[in-house]
Amino acid sequence: MEHEKLPGMPKMLMHVCCANCLLYPYDFLKDRYNITFYYYNPNIHPEDEYKKRLSEVIRVSEKLGVELVVGQYDTGRWFKLAGSFPDEPEGGKRCRICFSMRLRRTALYALRNNFDFFVTSLSVSPHKNAGIINAEGEKASSGLKIVYLPADFKKNDGFKKTMQMSRKHGIYRQNYCGCVYSMK
To answer: What is the 3-state secondary structure (H, E, C) of the chain?
Structure first.
């Protein structure tokens, strides 16, 4: 299953939210970019759930032979930014703030570590608005010398494909987006 990285291919930092959602985006991009996964998700609660998802991402990245960088689990920062909207519906202001926070951190890491591009696997979910995600990705790269690759990975049955891949590899599948408010 391991994919060979080729010299001269552009370097891509892929923000990943969970092992399920990274499979199809990685498969779609792997022949055009040397990909590194970036797991930065301080929104995921409780901490046991965060660790369970991280464990699966580690397992998949090892199986694929893809380097994984794990960002800080700074829940205090997440609650400070997004916690003002506990009653906001899924996909509302809280989600936009959450996307913004995670994509800005991804952009900064990509810039500091000489990546050519960054992208997120978030848009593979049918519950996520790719337009909002891409707008926040563009905003995150604004003023930086790093390029955000806009994508809607749910197109062309991307979500169906990622779920099929996930079942094939026996990957844990969560039943909520990740934050304490989406557990409802």
So the answer is: CCCCCCCCCCEEEEECCCHHHHHHHHHHHCCCCEEEEEECCCCCCCHHHHHHHHHHHHHHHHHHCCCEEECCCCHHHHHHHHCCCCCCCCCCHHHHHHHHHHHHHHHHHHHHCCCCEEEECHHHCCCCCHHHHHHHHHHHHCCCCCEECCCCCCHHHHHHHHHHHHHHCCCCCCCCCCCCCCCC
Provide the 10 A C-beta neighbour count for residue 52.
Answer: 16
Residue 149: CATH number of its domain? 3.40.50.620
| Residue 83 belongs to a domain | yes
pLDDT by 10-residue block (mean), the chain, 184 residues = 69 97 97 97 96 97 97 94 87 93 98 98 95 98 96 96 94 86 78
Count of domains forming the chain: 1
